[in-house]
Each structure stands twice: as structure tokens, then as C-alpha cells.
Amino acid sequence: MSHATPGTPSRVHLDNGGRAPWHPLARQAFEQALGDGWADPRRLHAEGRRAARLLDGAREAVAAVLGARTQEVHFTPGHTASLQTAVASAAAGRRRAGSTVVTSAVERAAVLQAAAYTAAAAGAHPAGVTEPAARPGGPVPVDRLGRVDADAMIAAIRAPGVALAALQHANGEVGTVQPVEVVHDAARAAGVPLLVDAGASVGHVAVPGAWDLLAADPADWGGPAGVGVLAVRQRVRTASAGPEDEDPWAPGGVSVPLAFAAAVALQAVEADRVEQAARRRALVDRVRAQVSHIPDVEVVGDPEGRLPHVATFSFLYVDGEALVTELDRHGFAVGSGSACTSSTLEPSHVLAAMGVLTHGNVRIALDRATTADEIDRFCAVLPGAVARVREMLGVGGL
Amino acid sequence: MSHATPGTPSRVHLDNGGRAPWHPLARQAFEQALGDGWADPRRLHAEGRRAARLLDGAREAVAAVLGARTQEVHFTPGHTASLQTAVASAAAGRRRAGSTVVTSAVERAAVLQAAAYTAAAAGAHPAGVTEPAARPGGPVPVDRLGRVDADAMIAAIRAPGVALAALQHANGEVGTVQPVEVVHDAARAAGVPLLVDAGASVGHVAVPGAWDLLAADPADWGGPAGVGVLAVRQRVRTASAGPEDEDPWAPGGVSVPLAFAAAVALQAVEADRVEQAARRRALVDRVRAQVSHIPDVEVVGDPEGRLPHVATFSFLYVDGEALVTELDRHGFAVGSGSACTSSTLEPSHVLAAMGVLTHGNVRIALDRATTADEIDRFCAVLPGAVARVREMLGVGGL
Questions:
Q1: Which of these three, A248, A270, A292, is where a domain ends?
Q2: Residues annotated as region Disordered (chains A, B) (predicted)?
């Protein structure tokens, strides 16, 4: 998507994973809700009731897309909060079963850290002690395409002492879609609830039905940051894992305009999701094909079972930060390293778990407004940028 | 403030505590930041750096108002989150000193519940067990005006085993200002950090300097809901009390447009705060005087040391919900019961702690746009509304 600002008329933003520009209808909805729904929806007067109706409508709209009941959908302060609360409250609800949270190795940091915290807290530590407890087996490994070993995950779920399992729908960093159906079948048979992190997929591909708890991220589909979505099937037993509050999913309550804008954006992107997916998949295929001609590159992630809008590659003899900076100088914004913590540019735990190159990494996530022309320009600029960075690092001859 | 909507041309909204309409400049700022600051501020490219600059500017502006250093100011997901995180992380930072959190009896439910949770979690319970532990003395009592017994609070702070003390700057439900300076002096001498909940006061009266942690609420001063402010003096030792995250104050990061709008709103209300306070104090004095002529009423809260924009009264022989509904029918939105949980209409713990009438309660919080004419109309309508509700309840002759 071009953001025409003075001096940068042809800026191309290809780093839309987890923080996309707002959908135009979301902005309209937000404005409307600021006028109609700014009041506290828990109040009894007309303004409060109007806000409550907007909030109910938002939950209903989100529920319809997720294939959930309205009362199963909760708004949270954001996607990380959704994941933390989901792990903590589902684990607390099954405290008698155990405290192990089975995860894949490529879950978001928030899930891995919440799982470690749950295990540590149950180990008779007082709250606040966060050293990850040693957990038999650790996260379940993935293959070189980023796909979890489903047999190993199922075996881990069937082991004693498991409170919860967590498997993402698709990995936002490399695009690989996970086998959530088969894992969910096994988890149901074992009586273990499955948390599906769909934060990188909802709005881009069809929402799976195979979940007991499902987290989705409005900021990823063109809604606002500052609000998250967590759906919890009614059959799932949860318990509070923090101080009491009227709303355990969003302590203090949620902002109605944010929730309403999130719901409207979701409806809007669902309306032409299939066309958008096909269009972006074609562009991503083009990028993946073109990039593969650059010397010493590894195109990352499952070539088939993948998100339609994400493409990731790692270059040998290149520093990721330098490449992001070089591309930025030429008008292209891209991500690098870990989708969750790209600022730190620490080696991505996702790439490391896949056994692929962890340095020289570039990730693009196409917006709905990204054009074929922008992708062509990116493909034209990338080889030179890689060569220049290699030259700066003294490996130009390679 | 009149919200002219079709069919309700002269609606008067007097329930602005904790959820006020946005300041016009906050809306402008939000729109601007949506264009400039929608990207993830942790990213390295131009869009990310632009968002980071907006966020830095917002922190700097808030810090200037709060009398804090920029690096001491953190944005959170909201005021309840600020209070929960402040209690949890300050208590975790002083785990060796003890696990008691000394509070007044009129703190917000979020503070009381976080204090109870901290004590329970330290009592060798696994995380998630939320039964409040018996704590010697319990919350420190207040007098009939809502003012905390400073001597008793200081004695409680000096007792062994205290991790943290919490005293609000002013009570949002009844307006009473607390003696934070004298309590802070004693807490400093005892080496106990003091959390000051200024969620009902910042933007309305001068910010006190007497704090170690200070929480303030943008939604109360005309900024957005969905973002909170927590300032922590650099000398305060804190520790994580939950899963690790890059940003322990707002896991997953904060929405830059929300933070920016919050800061702009704060600057805007600070610019004419003194005039606004004088104007609203005169209106509140008028209401308090007029209401005192209604039979069987108790005008609540300190008549002198109080917030300029809050007025609260309790009527004998009246049901609070019925009175809110009756006033709503005549075009006036007011609060009732507890400022934090007015939807439930459970007896307010604040009113109960003060030993005043807990039923038949009405609270108004004037917006900056509330006019003298609106207040006069409210004063004209209120006696009849009270009489009608008493009649419905069969106490019309009293």
C-alpha cells in the first residue's frame, strides 16, 4: 500500500503482519461509535445502553465469522492479552489435571512464555517467579517447512498432567499452516482443550472449526490495535488466574469504539476474502519465484499449505538489520527476524526451530491494498539491495 | 454536555466519571496518528520510526504534566490494567519485605482485589487461587466524609511485612481528596513505595508530587478508553509478576494512536484546568446546595477538600436504579452506586466504608462542556423525580 507523504511519494509498505493500516470502513465505524458508543456500556442510562447495543452487535458479528456463539466471544485488550489470558484461565480451570501446556516450537513468544509461567507458578512457586520450569520434552518440534510434528504433539497431549494444548492456525512469520484439525481431534479424545492462535490467519483464510479457545487479532485484519478477540467454547472450563474483575477477559471493560471498528473491519475483509486471497497468493508466488533466483537465498515456509499474503526468505552473507535499512532507504518497508519481536533482531525462535537460516531474514506481509506494480518494483530492487549489503559486509564477491 | 441526537434534542449527560466524551483535540490527534502512527513502533523502517517518535512525544507530554521523567511514564491497556500491574509488579519487586499491600477502604475495587490477590498468591498458593487472604487489620478506615485515617494508615505502613501502600488521590465516587502528602512522607521514611491512584483527579486538579507509582486514566480526562497511564519513579524496584514480555506494562505493545490522543487530550485539559475547575466547582456547589433542600437527603463527601466536578447524594426511601431510570426518562444521564461497578448496583463499598446511606444514590460528574443551564435544569427536575420514585415505592407521603 502506498502511503503518499511529502518527500516519499512512492513508499511501499510490505510489513503488514500484526499491524496493518485500518480498513477504510473501520475508520468510519470508529467515528460513528465515538459519537454513539463512547459511554460505559455497563451503565443503565440511554447512553450506556446504546454503547452496550453496539458492543453486543460487535460480538455477534465477530461470532458469525468465527463460527462461535455470541456469548462465546470476548473482547480483550489485545492479541497478546488474549493469548496470556487464554493460557492462564484454561490452565487454571484444569488445575486438577495438571499444569503442562503442550505447545509447538513455533508458537508466538506470548504463548511459550505463558506456558512456561503456568508450569512455574504451579510448581509451588509464589506468583511472580517466572523462571521457566523444566518441562518433559519441551515444545513439540517442527519440520524444515515449519509444520508441527502432529504425531509428537498428539503423544505429548496424551501424556499425563496436561492442562492445555496450544497450536497456531498458521505461522505469521513464515506462513505455514498447521494441522489443527488432526491435533484437535486427538485433543478432544484426550479431554484436553486446544487453544488455536489464529492471529495471523483470520481475515486472510477460512477460520477453522477445530478449536476450544481461539484467539484472533483485529490489528492484523485492518482493525484497531488496542483490542483483541478471544472465543471460548462454552464447554471449556476456565477459572480466574488473576485478581477478580467484573470482566475477566478485559479487566475494567473494553472500549466500545475499538471493538465496533474491529468487528466492522472483520466483516469487510470477509466479504471479499476469497478474491483477495487469490490475488495476494499470486503476488506471493511471483515474489517467491523471483527471489529464488537471487544467489544464496533460502525461500522459507511451506510452498503449498501457507497463508496467501506472507512471504519469507533468508539470505546468506547478509545482516537482517542492514537489509531492512537498505530496503527502507529505497522506499520499501519490510519485516525481519521474528514477527513478534522484530525490533530486537534476535534470532527468530521460529526460524531456529525450523532449522533454516536465522540471519539475513526478510519477511513481507501484503496488505489488501498492495498492488502488482508495487510487488514488481520490490522484486526489481531486492537483488541490488542484497548485493549492496553483501558488498558493505565485504562479501561482495561471493 | 448535550448530545443532540434525533428525538433527544436536549439530552444532558452528567455521568462523565471514568468515561468522558473525547476532547475535540483528541479526535483530531487520533486521526492524525492513524495516518502517521499506525505502524508498530518497534519496527526499524520509516513507518515504524515515525510511530515510535509519536509514542515518545506522547510519553514526554504526559511526563511533563505528571511531573515525571519521560522514561518513568508507561502506557498500559487501561486504568484497571495500570492498577493491577502496579500492585503486582511493585509487590513482586519487594517480595523479600513481605506481601501485605496496605490500602484505604475506599480504593477502587481493582486495587483492593489486586492487594488481596497478592497476599493470597504469596501464601504459598499456586497462581490462580484468588481467595483473599486474611490480612491483619484489613483496609484502613475512612471517616464519614470519606477521608482516610492517616494515622492508622501510617501505622499500618510501618508494620512489618509491607510490600506496598496504595492511596487514591481523590475518590471518584464522592469527590473526597485524600492526604497523600502526609502518607507519602511516612511511607518514604518507612521505605515502602506508595501507589497513588489519580484516575479520578488528573485533568481536573493539580497532580500531586507525593507518589512512587502514579496511575492516571485518559478515559476520565477526555482521552480514549483502551489506554492507561502508569508512572513509576526510577527508584522503585519492580519485578515481573506474569509471563515475560518485551513490554511488561502493555504486553504486546500499545496502540500509538490511542496513546497519542490520550496525551493531546491531557495537554488540552491542562491548558485551562484552573478556569474549568473554578467554573465546575461553582456549579457543583450550586447542586449540593439545591439538593440539600430535598427532604431526607444526604449530601455525600468532603464539602471542602474535594474534586471540583463531582457531586454525590443519597436519598432515603429511594431505589437507586429506579431513580437513575426516572432521570434517564427525563433526559438526564447520571451514575449511581459504585463508580466502578455501577451496572451491578450492589451497595458501593465506598459509601459503606463511609457509613453513609448506600441506597438511593446518585452521582454526577460534570464534563467540561456541561453548562450552567443544564445544571439548573437538573436541579429543577431532580426533586420531582425523587418524589415520583418515592410514590412508586409507596413512600410518597414521607
A1: A270
A2: 1-20
